Amino acid sequence: MNLFKKKDSKKTEQEKVEERREEVLATGRKFKYPLQWTKHRIVVNTVLIGAVVLAVLIAGVWLALYRLNMTDDLLFRLTKIFPAPVAYVDSSDVRFSDYLMLYRSSMTSLERQSTTQFEEGSIEEVRNEYKRAALTNAELYSFATKIAKEKDITVSNDEIQAELQRHVKIGGVDRSEESFLKIVSENFGLNRDEYERMIYLSLIKAKVATSVDSKANQLAEQVESILSSHDYDYMAVVEELGNNIIYEETGGLVGSTNIDGGRATEAMKLEPGQSSKRFISMNGDGYYYVKLIKKTETEAQFVSIKIPFTELDVQFAKLQEEGKINELIEIKELGAIEQPSD
Prior knowledge:
The protein is of the alpha+beta class.
């Protein structure tokens, strides 16, 4: 033992310091590397857990949309942020958000009614009928948008805003844009952006319909020629064109805000005996001509001629027949809508 002590005593102070330093570092390494390994595992586990949660959420949303056919507000907002298709029309996507927007706007007023007004189970039939109509309309809008891109047909923001202002002042009512949008929210459940989207879809469809429907344009020229040569006698048009046009009479005074494609609004701009120029219906399904019979400050009596747009519908029906419309959701067919009981 004395020999070892003697040998150790020969070490310099520098050597002793170096040995001590190495002992301290070696002890530290025992704690350093296990801690680094633990941090690595924490990061990996966090990423894996996040991926699993995201996958579960995506699967849940997919199940809610495509299998359960849910239409709640959260899913509507999600489909606006993350575009998802509800169908394909000739390989073009049909936005799920458009389908839900159309369906929810149609159902908002109904949802506020007491379900006791309907026969048992008929409320579900109404929902499914509205879903079917909303999906078909969304598909038609998608088809019109596809044609618009091919024909370089566009709708500007200025056109959308002008149409919005036309809606605000419909019927000659002096209301603010804010109050109008409040009415839209209460009656259709739509905010400004969503209502502007509805206007865009309507305008693009109308532009495409007028572009592809040569028959309607030819009929419009014939109507205008007959009216100008017969002192704007609408019955003369009926006699010459018959079933090619649709003739209607109000039979009495109707409100200036009557929901009739914009005819009452146009009639209120006329004087008795005057006829309007050609204008497109507010839902873009045809041309209208209106002749005022009489009016008060808030009501009008008039006759009208409508030239329906048919070519776009014919082309759309052809796609259906050829199996070029692929729907990603299934809507139950439950029969006709039961009318509310008195």
